[in-house]
Write a structure and sequence with these properties.
The protein is an all-alpha fold. The protein contains five helices and no strands. α3 packs across α4. The protein is flat. Bound molecules: zinc ion. Zinc ion binds next to α1 and α2.
Length: about 90
């Protein structure tokens, strides 16, 4: 018998998402990021969060930590693996 592991979906704690408007574009984007990340393994989550943080630029690591619930150190670790400097 195959037991499927339940997906754990993180809920963003940024001020926009905490306001609770489900149609705010940022709220939708953050929910999609967390839904996508719930399908990934730990390494894939780390690298994806790092990629998004790098794409955002200044403040990206803090923002992705808030959205994804990943530790800032974890996201920084991904930067070493992707050979980027953020
Ligand atoms: Zn959010």
């Amino acid at each position: 018998m195959v037991v499927k592991k339940a997906l754990r979906i993180n809920h963003c704690v940024c001020p926009i998402c905490q306001r609770g408007d489900p149609y705010h574009p940022k709220h939708i984007q953050h929910r999609q990021i967390n839904l996508l990340m719930s399908t990934m393994n730990a390494r894939q989550r780390r690298l994806f969060a790092t990629y998004e943080a790098e794409r955002i630029g200044l403040g990206g690591i803090s923002q992705l930590a808030r959205i994804t619930g990943l530790d800032r150190k974890t996201i920084r670790k991904g930067a070493n693996e992707l050979l980027i400097n953020i």
